[in-house]
Amino acid sequence: MEYIGFSNYISIFQDSTFWLSFRNNILVVLASIFGQIPIGLALAILLNRKLKGAKFFRTIGFLPVVISTVVISITWRMIYNSEQGMLNNLLESVNLGFLAQNWLGNPDYAIYAILVTIIWQFVGLYFIIFLSALQTVPEELLEAAELDGANEWQKIFHITIPSIKNVILVAVILCISGSLKTFDLIYVMTSGGPAHSTEVMATYMYSATFEGLSYGYGSAISVLILIFSLILILITTKVLNAKKD
Q1: How many CB atoms are located within 10 Å of the residue 130 CB?
Q2: Within a domain: residue 1?
Q3: Which of 81, 131, 155, 242 is the most buried (most CB within 10 A)?
C-alpha cells in the first residue's frame, strides 16, 4: 500500500464525468424540491377537505411509495420503451407522433424522463406528511379568517401554509438528502447511460468502486456526496429560517 494523500480528490475534481453526475444530482434535487413538495402540498390541501372518495385517493396517492423501486423502474422503463411503450403509443393515438422519442436512449432526454419517474414515486410521501400536518391547523383560525372575509386562497397562503412551515422545512431536508443518494431507480432504468447522461454521484461511485475496482476513488466520491448533502441542507435551513423570521 502507498499513501497518496488527496490524489483521489484531485482526480475527481478533474473528472468531467463526475461533474456531469454532480449536475444530474442537482437536477434531481431541484426536480424533487420544486416537483414533489408543491404537488404533494397541493394534493394534501385538496384531499384535506370532505370530498367523496377522499380515502380512496389518499391510498392511491401513497401507493407508489410502498411499491418496490425495482418494480417502479421496470414499469416506467416499459412505459418509455421506444417501440412498444405506452407513452409513444399515446402520443401516436392523439396525432402527436412527431413528439415520440427513444426516451431512455437519447442522451438529451433520458435524465428528464427519469426526473418524471422520481417525482411520481415520492409525491405520495410528502402528500401524507403534509396531510397529517394540515389536520393540526386549528379550525378556529380558518373560521375566524372566513368571518373576516378571507377567500380560500387567502386562507391557504396566510394561515394554512404558515402554520405548517416547520413541516415543509423538514420535507425539504428529506427531499435533499433523498435526492443526493438516488441510486436504485437510475441503476435499474439506465445504469447511468446512455453516455453517462443519467449518471448521478451514487451510480458513478458504484461503477468506480465495484466495476472499476477503484475502492479509494469510490470512497472519495462517497465523502463528497456527504459533504455536498450537508452543505445543501445547511443552506436550505438558513434560507427557510430567514424567511420564517
Answers
A1: 25
A2: no
A3: 131
CATH of the domain at 103: 1.10.3720.10
Count of the separate structural domains present in the chain: 1
3-state DSSP helix/strand/coil percent for the chain, to nearest 5? 75, 0, 25
Whether 74 maps to a domain, the answer reads: yes
Instruction: Count other Cβ atoms within 10 Å, centred on residue 120.
Output: 15
pTM summary value: 0.88
Going residue by residue through the chain, which has 245 residues, state the pLDDT in tens, using 9 for 90 and above: 778 888 999 999 999 999 999 999 999 999 999 999 999 999 998 888 777 777 788 888 888 888 999 999 999 999 999 888 999 999 999 998 888 999 999 999 999 999 999 999 999 999 999 999 998 888 888 888 888 888 888 888 888 998 998 899 889 888 888 888 889 999 999 999 898 999 999 999 999 999 888 899 999 999 999 898 888 888 877 877 776 55
